[in-house]
Give the backbone structure.
Amino acid sequence: MAALVELRDVVKHFPVSRSLGEIVRGRHPAVHALDGVSLDIGSGDAIAIVGESGCGKTTLGRLMLKLTEPTTGTIAFDGAALGEMKGEELRGFRREAQLVFQNPFDALNPRFTIYRAVAEPLLNAGIDKAEHADRVASAFRRVHLPDLERYLDRYPHQLSGGQLQRVVLARALVLTPRFLVADEPVSMLDVSVRAGILALMREVREAMGLTAVYISHDLALVRYLCERTVVMYLGTVVEDGPTSEIVRNPRHPYTRALVAAVPVPDADQSHAPLPITGTVPDAREPPSGCRFRDRCPHAFERCSTEAPMLLSTANGHRVACHLK
Ligand code: SF4
C-alpha cells in the first residue's frame, strides 16, 4: 500500500546566536534537530516515535504537520509535497492533518468556552455554521463526552485533566481528519486517567481508520497503541520495526537500554539490562561517526569515524549500528 506520509532525507537545523569567537571564525552554529530522516508511514498505520528529550521526535512531528519547514529534504502527504502546498490544497491538508497537544491545560484558550474551543477549527476551515452543533456533538460522542449540554458554557479551568484531554481530542477530530500526530498525549495527566485516554485514542483511531503518530519518551506507554516503533537518538533514527519485535528483540544498544529501563512483562528477559550513563550530547556539536558512541558499551574504533547507516535486518527491522 502506498505511504500516506513520506519523508526523504529530512534535515532540520535551528540556527543559534553566535558568540564573538564564532563570528570571528566565520562559524554558523545550529542545533541539529534532525539529520537525514527517511520514513514511510502507511495509510491506517499507528507509529510510535520514541527517544529521550532532545532526540528530535517533536520536531519530526511538527514537520509532518507542516508547522515548521525542513532545512533540506522532502515530506509528502498522500503524494503531494508539503513544501509546495498553498491555497486550497494547503487548507485541505490543514483539515486532514491534526495535532493532539501534550498539555491540555495549555492547548485551549482559557477565555473560550468548551463549545467555542471545539467549534473553532470548523470556523477556521470555513464550514457552514449551521453544521457546527452537529459536528461538535459528534466529536464529543467519539471521545465519550456525550452530554454536550453539560460542557457547552464551561471554561477549561472548570474541567479535570482527563476531561480536558478528551476535549482536546474532540477538537482534533471535529474536522474528521485522516492523520493525527499526538505529542506525549498523556504525559501531563494524572496516572489514574492515562490508561483511559490511551484506550480512547486507540478506539478512535480504529473506528475512524486514522493514520496516527504517537510521540513519547516512554516505550512502555506506546507499545499498546502502535504496531510499529521508530527509535530516535540525537536527530537520527537508530531503529525501526514492528513494536513486538523491538520490545522482544531490540537490536540497537540504545533501544536495548530503553527496553531495559521500563517494566516490559512479556519481553525476552534473557538479555541483561544495559543501563547507559551520561546524557544526550549537545545537538549543536553532535559526535562524529555514531552519535551514540559516547554512551555505547560496545563502541569501537570505527564508531568514531563512520556513521552507521540504517539498514534492513530480519523481520521488518531497520537498525543503524556497525555491529548489526
Ligand atoms: Fe555502539 Fe558503534 Fe553500534 Fe554506535 S555503531 S551503537 S557506537 S556499536
